[in-house]
């Protein structure tokens, strides 16, 4: 099987594409997998690191509102479709799998032009433009959760990294806490906000640190690249020595590469509500206080709502988060083991650890259409 995956741009598109690529190769070791991307996206680094071929196409940013760029959009789309058509032809693609974003739109159009079967995967609760277009071209549409409004939607979940999908938090807890230098016995809060951190979450956490530590908790905080010194200074201003001693109770780090061990170490998370984050936390059964980023069409809030409604998390609007609110939400939760266990059990009912295999099954069914049709 020759598979082309269109999932460039942000980690929210790239990670599910890479997880799917790995699942394709597990199912068919002879499969040929190529990822589409642009020179501007994270895929330039992430795809080669995972050992897959990356084919570059011209970027086609999709304006959210009328701007002068909107007038140039048809020309950009045409150039990207032309280049994507060349990639699909030269690779003799059996199927095109799109994950949304500005890489997927020209890919869907090129595949339709060539008669290459299309599979669409939508991670967000509110589909973007590219996938709304792509879903009109195919009956193979995989979605992250029930109720996502796309034609032919089939609930498959979000393909996750194997280190997350196979994680057993209970058996890995000691390893996770040792990896980050945390105390093996203290209730642990994990705070993160994406690769660059989240300023509002960082500020609220810094302000709430004295109360959190006084309550007997410890904090692992991914503050974002370039923010470690500021986080340490904020902690010091509160009389807290960050990352000092054999077992510091406040550990600020720029970025967490081993999210599996961070999830294992934690009893509760405070985080944004990106689609991947929500899927990972549900899959591993980690309760969370979700602080949706208030941008775009409000998709982060909708991403978190199924878990929150099921009792697996708490939702705090971004504009309402401050040190008092963070402490008020976190301290009662971290001090209540029974409630944390109940929230984790509720969250895991929504998790899909086998989403990658489910999506690959859909990919194979779509590819079979091409074989039947010649």
Automatic annotation (TrEMBL):
InterPro entries: GlcNAc_MurG, Glyco_trans_28_C, GlycoTrans_28_N. Its EC number is 2.4.1.227. Pathway: Cell wall biogenesis; peptidoglycan biosynthesis. The keyword Lipid metabolism does not apply. Residues 188-358 form the Glycosyl transferase family 28 C-terminal domain. UDP-N-acetyl-alpha-D-glucosamine binds at residues 10-12, 124, 161, 195, 256, 300. Keywords: Cell cycle, Cell division, Cell membrane, Cell shape, Cell wall biogenesis/degradation, Glycosyltransferase, Membrane, Peptidoglycan synthesis, Transferase. It is an enzyme of class 2 (transferase). It is a peripheral membrane protein. Its main location: membrane. It comes from the Bacteria. GO terms for molecular function: UDP-N-acetyl-D-glucosamine:N-acetylmuramoyl-L-alanyl-D-glutamyl-meso-2,6-diaminopimelyl-D-alanyl-D-alanine-diphosphoundecaprenol 4-beta-N-acetylglucosaminlytransferase activity; undecaprenyldiphospho-muramoylpentapeptide beta-N-acetylglucosaminyltransferase activity. It catalyses: di-trans,octa-cis-undecaprenyl diphospho-N-acetyl-alpha-D-muramoyl-L-alanyl-D-glutamyl-meso-2,6-diaminopimeloyl-D-alanyl-D-alanine + UDP-N-acetyl-alpha-D-glucosamine = di-trans,octa-cis-undecaprenyl diphospho-[N-acetyl-alpha-D-glucosaminyl-(1->4)]-N-acetyl-alpha-D-muramoyl-L-alanyl-D-glutamyl-meso-2,6-diaminopimeloyl-D-alanyl-D-alanine + UDP + H(+). Belongs to the glycosyltransferase 28 family. MurG subfamily. This is UDP-N-acetylglucosamine--N-acetylmuramyl-(pentapeptide) pyrophosphoryl-undecaprenol N-acetylglucosamine transferase. The gene is murG.
